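Reply to dn_fold:

You asked what the input looked like. This is it:
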Amino acid sequence: MPLGDVRQQALQDLLDAERELRAHAEGELRRLRDLLYGLARALDGDRVEQIRRDDPRAFRYWNAQQYEEFFAPLIAAQQWHTVRNQPTGWGNKTANGNGNGRKADAEKIRQLEGEIARLKQQLEDTRRHAADLAAQLREVNRRDSAAQPLQEPKVQPKPKGQSREAAFDKAANARGKQPSKKPPAQRKKTAAVTPRALPVRDEIIAALRQIRKQPPAIPARVEHLFSSSVIGRTRQIMALYLLALQGITPRIELDYYIAATDGIKKRSGGVRRKLDALQEKGIITAKKLVINTPRTSLVVMRLTDEGKRIAEQIFMQPPVESEWERLVRLHEGERFPAHTAAVLLFAMYARLQGYSVSVLPEVESPSPPDILIARANERLFVEVELGRKERPAKWKYNAELNGGKIALVTGTANRREVLTADIQRMGLPGVATDLEYLLQKGRNEEAPLWIAQW
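and this is what came back:
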């Protein structure tokens, strides 16, 4: 057997063994927590309910120290009650006249204390073992990253004449003068958040399938924030991958990729519940963006600061700036939520049809475009326009970037027809589409992205 195959088989055996040990450790940890929780309810049920009213997650996710603090006053109170109030002699039904009733209670307390100490030690041992296994898996992933990098999915073959990377590198120049709604003060360039061309649909799904096959380890300190089921936890890791390493933010798009990877019905609720759970635990945050024309809305998600720290530990690299965050930072995305939603919707549909997408590409133009899309030898700088003002200068600058033609996205079909007529009177060719067309119920994913061409 070739050395590479031997190494791969050894690695697979190690991963299989780690998964089995991890599953056993997680099961043992849950059983120990259930036992401690039952003991707490039996000893002081009223106090348990009071604590759970303040924090519904209490007890199920407590560590050894928190259980110790809960049981300490109970043990002290029981010892005091035994010494001070327990009758002895013939009046005590458990006594034999020689003071043995008090001795029996003291022995029972010692047994309970010993059992609690044993359970706490076993709980801590299990947690340490799980943390050790997680560290081993991270080390294995690091060693194998050259052969199977998680965050570097397979790229498409390079088209003739110009690669996809070269196409986007050509656009990565400093921005020029900005229009009024894009203040120059917000255009400060930061190398860490330079826009990146996202992989196309099939490449994203391939990366998610790799995660499903070999899920990365979750840090032991935050394991309780994730689903206890393997499937649910893996879907949550996929969501973090899309948010942290791909910068994708529409909830409907996160649902699409995860459902397509797992082979389940899209928007069935199985993925939505896992995303909602991450939001409840403070790992991600969400916001609903409304578009008035056409009447629709888009829920967008991003990582919280804690979510970014967790994602960096899981994937061993800093999260990228999401498309939503970039629009907020550079394009007054909070002030113009409808335009933000329209840009993100078009980016999603372009990506689902195989295009690489860069939101707010850095180009030298008096009127920088909203999106750059590329596929094979096709590359277009796209303007998303929901307003009703005439913008001949904007069309002129867009045509200059696209080699003489326009790429336009509007909200409605009526507005698209009006603007395309204006552009045609300027003698400029181009392509156009609108959100009404893209949002049509039952629209095939393979339907053309552009509905008009002239």
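The longest helix spans residues 3-54.
Hope that clears it up.
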